[in-house]
Design a protein that fits this description.
The structure is a single chain. This protein is mainly alpha-helical. The protein has 12 helices and 5 strands. Among the domains are: 112 residues, no CATH class; 51 residues, Arc Repressor Mutant, subunit A (Orthogonal Bundle). Helices cover 54% and strands 7% of the residues. Strands 4-3-5 form a 3-stranded antiparallel sheet. Strands 1-2 form a two-stranded antiparallel ribbon. Helix 1 packs antiparallel against helix 2. The radius of gyration is 30 Å and the shape is elongated.
Length: 283
């Protein structure tokens, strides 16, 4: 039996079709054989695939102590279960056991607040996952054509599930609605965005542009955007009369003023323009 061919086939097939649901992180080149934690050496396998891969490694490297120990720690096979067909049958038992343990662990820690160290570890793990080559393309393939009503399993929600979700969300106030972010939160979000290595390619920009083409914003949305980007100006004319406006260019057009010179006055580069003084209230 060509164990190497089977091993490589499982790895290559999983890279092209990542498993859905419970997965386990695996080093393609084992750490006991000088494998590193680089993204190209990591892959997510189902519990059964993970078990079989480690079993195949013991066939490929029967005298390697680290390989043998890693497989032993996965399942602790006893002396009466050394035949290959028994190991393969146990792989399904191992997968079922790992999935059930994951559920029990999830219920055990549900509602328990995570420490800052745990949150940072989860964040770093998520960043590494999405930087892995092919991960975004694989996720796109998994979600292609899937309606928004589909759950994590790829199956549509039942009517009972939809009703339960609706009742859960009704009357639940938004915790952040109307509450501005603190300066520390704003600084953290800016730092995270700057440290994000992803930059949109021309193809991605074109795809986003085509997706938004033809979509019309509501009047309320346009007003909200205008209010968010508008600037407030305070002006004093030569006679001493005060004005507070939000559209400097339109105001200058009506009063026959130069918007560029008025901006220079607001910046302090000019003392005045035609006797007018202007200052920016907010930016």
């Amino acid at each position: 039996m060509n164990y190497q061919k089977i091993h490589d086939h499982i790895i290559q097939n999983t890279q092209q079709n990542p498993p859905v649901g419970y997965v386990e992180r695996h080093h393609i080149i084992p750490t006991c054989m000088n494998g590193n934690d680089n993204l190209n050496n990591l892959i997510d396998l189902s519990a059964r695939q993970h078990f079989i891969i480690h079993w195949l490694l013991t066939k490929l490297y029967p005298d390697h102590q680290g390989i043998r120990y890693a497989f032993h720690m996965m399942f602790h096979p006893d002396s009466s279960s050394t035949r290959e067909d028994v190991h393969l049958s146990k792989s399904r038992t191992y997968e079922y056991h790992k999935i059930q343990m994951a559920k029990f662990t999830s219920l055990r820690f549900k509602g328990r607040a995570k420490t800052p160290e745990q949150r940072e570890k989860i964040r770093q793990s998520s960043l590494l996952r999405w930087q892995r080559p092919g991960e975004k393309a694989a996720q796109s393939c998994r979600m292609m054509g899937r309606p928004a009503t589909y759950g994590h399993t790829g199956k549509p929600h039942s009517e009972a599930t939809k009703l339960k979700m609706s009742q859960t969300m009704k009357g639940r106030p938004s915790k952040r609605k109307g509450i501005p972010s603190s300066p520390d939160a704003v600084a953290k979000m800016k730092a995270t965005k700057r440290s994000n290595p992803h930059r949109y390619t021309d193809e991605e920009k074109l795809k986003i542009s085509l997706a938004l083409t033809g979509q019309k914003r509501s009047v309320a949305t346009r007003n909200r955007i205008a209010a968010g980007i508008s600037k407030t100006w305070h002006l004093i004319d030569p006679t001493g009369q005060h004005y507070t406006i939000t559209n400097l260019q339109s105001f200058c057009r009506v009063h026959q003023l130069n918007p560029g010179n008025m901006s220079s006055v607001a910046s302090g580069n000019l003392p005045h323009h035609k006797g007018w003084k202007v200052s920016r209230v907010n930016t």
